[in-house]
Amino acid sequence: MTPLRTVQKIVTQWKDHGNVDVKPKSGRLRTVNTQKMRGIAKKIQRNDGASLNEMTQELSISLKSLHMMVCNETGLRVIDGQLLNGQLLNGQTKKSP
C-alpha cells in the first residue's frame, strides 16, 4: 500500500503542473555504474589480495571514490588502503582481557 504522504504529493503535483513526471534529481551523478560496483564486490569476495590502489588503476577511478563505494555499498572498513573483513586488532584491543 502506498503511504498517504506519497499520494498527497502526487495529487498536489498533478493539480499544480498537470502531470506527475519525475523531476530531475539534484546532485552529482555517480562515477561508477552498477556493473562496475558488482565487479568490485566480486573482487572483494574472492579476496585475491588486491589493494585499493591496484583496483583504482584497473577501474580508472580515484582512490577516494573507491574508498567511499567500498564503505557505503559493502559495509567493509578500509584502513591504510587495506580492506578489513573482521575486527581490527590494535595495541589497545590486544591488551584488553
From TrEMBL:
Top-level division of the source organism's lineage: Eukaryota
Organism: Necator americanus (Human hookworm)
UniProt name for this protein: Uncharacterized protein
